[in-house]
Amino acid sequence: MTLPRILLYILLLNARQNTEINTEKGIVVPSETDSKVSNCPFCLWLQGNGTKPPVVYEDPNLIATLCESPISKGHTQIIFKKHYHQLADVESDDAAKLGALMPVIAAAIKKGLGAEMVYVACIAEEVRHVHFHLVPRYDGDTKGFVHFTGDRIQLEDVDQVLDSIKQNIVAAVRTNE
Ligand SMILES: [Zn+2]
Fold first, then answer.
1. CB atoms within 10 A of CB 7
2. What distances in angstroms separate CA 119 from CA 38, 75, 110, 146, 174, one per listed residue?
3. How far does residue 43's CA lie from ligand 1's centre (Å)?
4. Which domains does the chain have, with CATH numbers?
5. What is the pLDDT of residue 20?
6. pLDDT digits (tens, 9 = 90+) for 14-41
């Protein structure tokens, strides 16, 4: 399988177990409370509490959902089911599974929705549970560099977007079997 061109931006936060704002770097270091599973919105819906976003893919280690506050059409997030506080904590088995899945989902977004590229970012600052944003970029879009604090879109056709990505994930998995 030809891997899609992926522009990889990984921002690894050097988080510590206290509350502090580093005004030089602009990084908000999480408090001990923010870092706990019991306060994690992803863990809440993973455990059946709260509303789970629309799911495009799921296996025992990972779940991929549409982002509820998308930057572009098909903006998907890949989330470890295990609560990792930051990227540096991720165990090798989970990392390997993520590495195999990420291009499959990126390819499905490209094929299903006609995206030109898929950007990847891992920030885990607003939600302290490691997850990866796959942000589709389209020919002629004017977003420039993706700004996570910038404008979000209202996704009108959730079901159609979901199906477009899911069908191509299934097709990719079958091709690799
Ligand atoms: Zn969590």
1. 13
2. 30, 10, 11, 8, 25
3. 4
4. 6-141+153-176 (3.30.428.10)
5. 45
6. 333 333 445 555 655 555 555 567 789 9
CB 158 within 8 A of CB 54: yes
State the distance from the centre of ligand 1 to the C-alpha of 47, rounded, in angstroms.
Answer: 10
Q: What is the CA(91)–ligand 1 centre distance, in A?
A: 15
Going from the Cα of 23 to the center of ligand 1, the distance in angstroms, rounded, reads: 26
Whole-model pTM: value is 0.76
From residue 174, alpha-carbon distances to 64, 68, 177 in Å are 18, 28, 5
Angle at 134 between CA 130 and CA 137, to 5 degrees: 155
Distance 154 CA to ligand 1 centre (A): 26
Structure confidence by residue, pLDDT tens digits, 138-151: 988 876 676 777 77
What end-to-end distance do the CA atoms of the chain give, in Å? 12
Question: Please, what's the largest Cα pairwise distance for the chain?
Answer: 50
Ligand 1 center from residue 37 Cα (angstroms) = 5
Q: Are 94 and 82 in contact (CB under 8 A)?
A: yes
DSSP letter assigned to residue 65:
E
Structure tokens at 45: 């819906």
What is the distance in A from the centroid of ligand 1 to the CA of 35? 8
69 C-alpha to ligand 1 centroid (Å):
18
